[in-house]
Design brief:
The protein has two domains: 3-210, 2-enoyl-CoA Hydratase, Chain A, domain 1 (Alpha-Beta Complex); 213-260. 44% of the residues lie in helices and 15% in strands. The chain contains twelve helices and ten strands. β2 (20-25) and β3 form a beta hairpin.
Length: 274
């Protein structure tokens, strides 16, 4: 498959490496948090770059699925401590909705948690659609041990994944759980060995990119997000309308045709939002 990379210009590459690397292989875009010497600690520059790349990917018909991982031995160790120490004692306003960016995309986003994920790094993974975590990866909310609160809507998302009791445990204690325990409680979905986590996440994303309708996946993501707040009747009525739309769309004809003809589907990509 064609492989493309998004790297900083040569004059920028020396002293200031890109905080997020971008590489596309076929329909799968791999985004890598790139501060390995700081365990990919989160900074405003990293946030701006990641969210910009996600927006671009959502509008690029060549991108069918996205994987987010970390360079080196960590996924993201949380907010950069130098940044946090610099704001101690000040009242800083933040965008509490920003970390939900992966969930709000039309395209599936897979987290490949290759190592430690703490604080805002864990929240980033929580708002991805599917989570792979190395079986020995260390995961922690960390907030209560830093005098912080459940940041970036973690108190909304975490109980929906693991239930209220476990969410309270993880948020109140900030205890560390390993990837295997995280899988057992529903915090992550798959926990392969560390050396396999990225390959398995990319393989999973590759199936989404090559075999699943982008239009269908976008509709499903919207349904699931809205259904978390809707009642049964609203969710059922919405699904009926979306089903009628799907029956009339070209992706349905292609999905049935490819099955009957025993060939891979040729679904059109999603371009810019209307």
């Amino acid at each position: 498959m064609a492989r493309t990379t998004d790297q900083p210009p040569p004059e920028e590459a020396g002293a200031h490496p890109a905080p997020v690397l971008s590489e596309r292989d076929g329909g799968v875009l791999l985004l890598t948090l790139n501060r390995p010497d700081r365990l990919n600690a989160w900074t405003p520059g990293m946030a701006d770059r990641l969210f910009a790349l996600l927006r671009e990917a959502d509008d690029d018909p060549a991108v069918r699925a996205i994987v987010i991982t970390g360079a080196g031995r960590a996924f993201c160790a949380g907010a950069d401590m130098d940044t946090l120490s610099g704001i101690s004692g000040a009242r800083i306003e933040v965008d509490g909705r920003s970390m939900a960016a992966p969930a709000r995309l039309r395209k599936p986003v897979v987290a490949a948690v290759n190592g430690s994920a703490a604080g805002v790094g864990l929240v980033l993974a929580l708002f991805c659609d599917v989570r792979f975590a190395a079986d020995d990866a260390k995961l922690t909310t960390s907030f209560s041990r830093r005098g912080l609160v459940a940041e970036y809507a973690a108190a909304w998302q975490l109980p929906r994944l693991v239930g209220q009791g476990r969410a309270m445990d993880l948020l109140l204690s900030s205890r560390v759980v390993l990837g295997a325990e995280a899988r057992d409680m529903g915090l992550v979905d798959f926990s392969p060995p560390r050396e396999d986590v990225l390959a398995e996440a990319l393989s999973y994303a590759g199936v989404l990119a090559s075999e699943c309708s982008p239009r269908s996946m976008a509709a499903v993501k919207g349904q699931v997000l809205r259904a978390q707040e809707a009642g049964f009747d609203d969710a059922a009525d919405e699904s009926a309308g979306l089903m009628a739309d799907a029956f009339a769309a070209e992706d349905f004809a292609e999905g049935i045709g490819s099955y009957l003809e025993k060939r891979p589907p040729r679904f059109p990509g999603l371009g810019a939002r209307e």
